[in-house]
Amino acid sequence: MNKEVKFTDKGTLAPAEHFTGTAWVHINVAPGEGYHTIVGTVAFEPMARTNWHVHQTGQILMVTNGTGYYQEEGEPIRLIKEGDVIKIGKNVNHWHGGSMYQSMTHIAIVTDLDRGKTIWGVPVKDEDYSSYTAAASNVENYLTSAAIKNHEDLWPNYVSKLQVTDPELIEIFDNWAFDEVYAKSELDIQTRTIITLASTIGTQSLAEFSMFVKAALNVGVSPAVIKEVVYQSVAYVGVAKGIDFLNTTNEIFKANGIALPLEGQMTTTPENREAKGLELMKATFGERIDQMRNEAPQDLQHIQYFLAANCFGDYYTRKGMDIKMRELVTYAVLVSMGGAESQVDGHIKGNLNVGNNRATLIAVTTQLLPYIGYPRTLNALSAINKLTLETE
């Protein structure tokens, strides 16, 4: 036991008999205050950790800063990060602490102290602590905390093979795409994931699409919305390019126990699809739709019919996504395809008309930059500047 008890603004130095390395404990709520509960803030320096131990009444950990490790007996070590809540069952043997290269702070809560106690065990051996996947440990060494956290939000406990074979590229890309780009594109996590998913269809990137279907499920995007992204894209990339993405979606859904087919989302009938589609086209693009239809040559009138009945009547009128999200999805697909500049212009105007302003379009384009590259991004931003500076 520590003979000298040290106290700083972090709290009291954790006792060496129960901890390896340097950790600090600050008691927020003590049992003597009339509660059978103890609440403490524990700050671990890198590589610091608790001994193996058991709480007879269980424990809750809430990570408030940094990145750390958590392990239950018989299970692999888990990477835990700011925002994570770990619920530890009664009599579960476990340990927790800072990660190899980063500190970690959590709030620890143990209740019902009158019904059980904490039983401390042996220290975690260095070789066991260091057994956490080499690639994951290395990635902590060169990725920022924000990059790790944002990547983990999408793909918990995922370790890329590229982290082993191409660590320099991962350092460049992940710190940029999952830290700097996030900071400059204020989007909620579901919107960010949906528009990136749509973009991968536009770039015909099936492997990355598969990753983002899984990410979408991980962040709570419904299967219906994921399917609507795929269906919507068919109107723009064509079914020949869309079919592989649909099949991949179905495979991932089945692997996750999602029954197919999903509940239908159609809202039109063969009789009213043109009228409903045309109504939505006018609501999105204004009365110029009538001019466009009237001025089309006679031998192209069928295309105007298809735009109303099929593109808008069959797809845009569906449930699952509202018009604001559908326009963002369409914009994401179009700017990612390249070669569709006039359509990008039209759908920037459509986005503005349905309530997606310049700031939203810039945020979406910024999010897509890592996946579509600078030329297509700069083209899209040029169009946004031209059209929004004229109208706002």
From TrEMBL:
CDD domains on file: cupin_HNL-like
Domain Carboxymuconolactone decarboxylase-like: 167-243, 304-384
Domain of life: Bacteria
Alphabetical list of Gene3D superfamilies matching this protein: AhpD-like, Jelly Rolls
Name of this chain's protein: 4-carboxymuconolactone decarboxylase
Species this chain originates from: Neptunitalea lumnitzerae
